[in-house]
Amino acid sequence: MLAHQHGLKNVLVTNGFINPEPLDELIPHVDAANIDVKSFDPEFYRRYCHGELEPVLRTVARVRPHWHVELTHLIVPFKADAELLDDVRRMRDWVAGELGADTPLHFSRYFPHHKLDLPPTDEALLVRAREIALEKLEHVYLGNVYSDTGANTVCPGCGALLIERLGYRTVVRGVSDGACTSCGRRVNVVGV
User: Fold this and answer.
1) In sequence order, what are the residues at sequence separation of 6 or more whose Cβ sits closer than 8 angstroms to the Cβ of residue 28?
2) Mutual orientation of helices 81-94 and 123-134 as an angle, nearest 10°?
3) What is the DSSP string of 75-127?
4) Confidence (pLDDT) at 192
5) Which stretches of the chain score pLDDT less than 50?
6) So what's the pLDDT on residue 98?
7) Where exactly does CATH 3.20.20.70 map onto the chain?
8) Total Cβ atoms within 10 A of residue 136
9) What pLDDT, in 10s, does the model give residues 69-80?
């Protein structure tokens, strides 16, 4: 509340696990969130997160009308690539249908850490996941990779470069007042 009183924005990075009552109290005080959807496989949530997928999806759907929402999905190679890509299709379809095609989705590369010792995610799998998501979503990015594939924001209408990213360097190229400077289409970009 104090941040808003001073003209500041509140942004959450969260796993989306929250009970409905505290979430309703939080909604008026948050402006944006990056919500981790760890997997679109309920068994992954039970086995590795010791939780459930459905409460996370309910949180995402509940806050989307109120906040700028971006989703991050860490692709962990815990099953065959074809099965992981089926999960990506289910996630893509849910995001497009429940949240809208303009909802940004980030696929991040997994690296072994702490208690989970699986091999790192193959970069080609991430690229394929992005291609699948782009069939129905407008803004799909790749994370934890050193490549310009999936880093930039382009206009879903005309394909013009809107925001260029290289590592931690970001340059706004073709967006002004929330619209593409080439074709005028409104884009789901905050802060430029």
Assistant:
1) 66
2) 30
3) E--SS-HHHHHHHHHHHHHHIIIII-TTS-EEEEE---BTTB-PPPPPHHHHH
4) 55
5) none
6) 97
7) 2-146
8) 14
9) 999 999 999 999
Name the CATH architecture for the domain at 2-146. Answer: Alpha-Beta Barrel (3.20)
- Please, which residues bridge with residue 72 across strands? 36, 106
**19 is written with which tokens?**
């009970």
Question: What CA–CA distance (Å, rounded) separates 13 from 71?
Answer: 10
- Tokens describing residue 12: 């959450």
Token pair belonging to 151: 């880093």
Place of tokens 């991040």: 108
Q: How far apart are CA 57 and CA 96, in angstroms?
A: 13
* Dist. CA 148–CA 1, nearest whole Å: 38
